[in-house]
Amino acid sequence: KMLHLSFILLLALLPAASFGAAFPQDALKQGCSLFKYHFLEPHEMKAMHKMKDHFGSMLQSDRRCNTRLFQRKWKPAELSVPDRMMLVKTELDLITDMLGLLNDPSFTETHQRPLAFLTQAQEDLRVCMATEAPSHQPSKKLRHWLQKLHIAKKTETTGCLEASAILHVFQVLNDLRCAALREQCT
C-alpha cells in the first residue's frame, strides 16, 4: 500500500516538475521584448542628435574611411528576423565600443545618455538572440557584411571607425526599429 501511495505521489509531482522546467523558458521568452524600440522617446532622440551634432563638429579630415560600412545594397527588411537582430547587435557592438574609446572630456557629457540607451538595446538583443535563435547562422547577405566589418576593424583607423559608427547612429536606430517590428518591418 505504501508503494502504491508513493507511485501516486510521484505521478502527481511529474506534471508539476514538467511545468516548473518549462516555466523558466517561458519566462525567458517573455524577457525578450523589443517593443520599446518601435519608437524612441523624444528625450532619447534629442540626446542622440546632440551627440551626433557635437561629434560632427569635432570631425577632422583624417576620419575619412576607405570602407563604407553602413552603405549596403540591401535593406534590413530583406533579412530574416534573426538576421536583423544579429545585424543590429553587431552595429551596436561597434557603436558602444567606439563611444567607450572616446576620451575627449567635452564629448563625455554628450554621449553618456546615448551610450546607456545603446548598451541597453545591445543587452536586450543579446537576450532575444539567446532565447529565440541561439544557434542562428547568418544569411549570405549578412555574412558578407559581417566580413566587411571584420576587415574594416583590422584595416581602418580608430578615428574612421568612430566617425562611421557615430555619424550613422540614426541608421542603426532604424535598423533596431526594424528588428523590433519583426515581420511587420517592410
Record keyword descriptors for this entry.
186 residues; mainly alpha; Growth Hormone, Chain: A; 0% strand; disordered N terminus; secreted; IFN-lambda_sf; cytokine; signal
Describe the model.
The chain is an all-alpha fold and 186 residues long. It has a domain at 36-56 and 76-184: Up-down Bundle (Growth Hormone, Chain: A). 73% of the residues lie in helices and 0% in strands. It contains seven helices and no strands. The protein has helices at residues 2-31, 42-58, 81-101, 105-132, 140-155, 158-167, 169-181. Residues 2-29 have low confidence and may be disordered.
Strand and helix layout:
Blueprint lengths: L1 H30 L10 H17 L22 H21 L3 H28 L7 H16 L2 H10 L1 H13 L5
Helix pairs in contact: 1-4, 2-4, 3-4, 3-6, 3-7
InterPro entries: IFN-lambda_sf, INF_lambda
Organism: Nycticryphes semicollaris
Family: Belongs to the lambda interferon family.
